[in-house]
Amino acid sequence: MKARYTLLFISSIIISSLFLQSCDAKKPAVGEEDLIYVVADSSEYYELEAALLQVFGKIIYTPQPENLFDIKRVSVNRLDEVKNKKNIIITAPLNSGSYTSQYINSILDSTVKNMIESESDFVINKYDMWARDQLVSILTAPDIEKLNQQILTNHENLLYYFQKISDKRLFQSLYNEKYEQKDIEAKLLDQYGWIIYVQADFLLAQDSPEDKFVWLRRAPGTDMERWIFVHWIDDASPNFLEKDSIYAQRNKMTSKHFVTIDNSSRVEIADSYISTKEVNFLGRYALMTQGLWRMDDKSMGGPFINYTFYDEASKRIYMLDGSIYAPKYYKKRLLQQVDVLLQSFMTKDQLSEDKIDDLLSRLK
């Protein structure tokens, strides 16, 4: 009997422990994906707002102008109200004496403060600080002028931090193994040596071995289409990686494969709002191009994003491209969705043997 009570007592401790652990587990961050809460005193925010808007309020044209992020100030005494949000910036000069400055001083250790004072750093990123999949970015400098300067100087890194955590959250929401089209992924791996995540509602619209071109399409013929293509060039040189070559090759592929039924019009890159920059794409040097596509008769159009890179192992140039056609809707979030899908791309060399075996076992 004593042993039984002892066992029950131990079991109750284990259950209680598990319950407490589950209660202590951080809940997922909530809120709008493209909204950043800025914790700052009003007077300091007034001096920093222009720089923050220049960095995070960057406009993309889809073709409607849309801000990458919106920002909303909250005072530090309301911090508890936003601790569950996805994107948070806490900013103030380190030694201004403002309430936000005092708070920043209270959470930074002396080593970090010395780094701030010496201007060797000004941003401290805290992931999952109060909620899961959350980014809290502390921006501080010795004074307001240097803080403004640091924000503008480091604009690409600051934007990158929030875009990457947003992409991670979005992929988690999009990925579902139950609805993954592994039969299509297996075919692509077997025939071409690469895979990309294929959602259940995407169709394999074209598969052209001679052009080394694969087109995946979602909701064809509707007012909210998304499509992705993968194109590659064998025995290539990294010298291909310059914007004029990329524009010409993209136009070559779309003019052949993205055409109207009567062959009277085809897709091309529009002249306006096109930009190309160097990026790190999945650990590779790449050129990312963003712009607008259009039919050459000007009847349709929309935004696209394109990553082009050289893969040393296969000696291939890869071009990964996502486009949106949704004339009745804002398209920034749709464009981010295809961007995230492009980032699921992997060559065979990057896959584990178990993953390869699992996919290839599905081939008929």
List the helices and strands and how they pair.
Elements: H1 2-24, E1 35-39, H2 42-56, E2 59-61, E3 65-67, E4 70-74, H3 79-82, E5 87-91, H4 99-107, H5 110-117, E6 123-127, E7 135-139, H6 144-153, H7 155-174, H8 182-192, E8 194-195, E9 202-208, E10 213-218, E11 225-233, H9 243-257, E12 267-269, E13 275-281, E14 284-295, E15 301-311, E16 316-325, H10 332-342, E17 346-347, H11 353-360
Parallel strand pairs: 1-4, 1-5, 5-7
Antiparallel strand pairs: 2-3, 6-7, 8-17, 9-10, 10-11, 11-16, 12-14, 13-14, 14-15, 15-16
Could you please describe the fold and organization of this structure?
By secondary structure, the protein is an alpha+beta fold. The chain folds into 2 domains: 35-173, Molybdenum Cofactor Biosythetic Enzyme, Chain A, CATH 3.40.980; 177-360, Protein Transport Mog1p, Chain A (3-Layer(aba) Sandwich), CATH 3.40.1000.10. It is 37% helix and 27% strand. It has 11 helices and 17 strands. The strands form 4 sheets. Strands 9, 10, 11, 12, 13, 14, 15 and 16 form an 8-stranded antiparallel β-sheet that branches. Strands 4-1-5-7-6 form a 5-stranded mixed β-sheet, with helices on both faces. A hairpin with a 4-residue loop joins strand 9 (202-208) and strand 10 (213-218). Helix 2 (42-56) runs parallel beside helix 6 (144-153) and helix 7 packs across helix 10 (332-342). The longest helix has 23 residues, at 2-24. The radius of gyration is 25 Å and the shape is elongated. The N and C termini lie far apart (61 Å). The model is unreliable at 1-23 (pLDDT under 50).
Head-to-tail CA distance between termini: 61 Å
Describe the largest sheet: 8 strands, antiparallel
CATH superfamily of the largest domain: Mog1/PsbP, alpha/beta/alpha sandwich
Would you tell me the structural class of the helices and strands?
alpha+beta
CATH hierarchy: architecture of the largest domain: 3-Layer(aba) Sandwich
Chain-averaged pLDDT: 92
Helices, by number, come to: 11
Low-confidence stretches: 1-23
For the secondary structure, the number of strands is 17
Examine the coordinates and then state which fold CATH places here, giving the name of the CATH topology of the largest domain.
Answer: Protein Transport Mog1p, Chain A
CATH class of the largest domain: Alpha Beta
Number of domains: 2
Question: How large a portion of the residues is in β-strands, by DSSP E?
Answer: 25-35%
Radius of gyration of CA atoms, rounded to a whole number = 25 Å
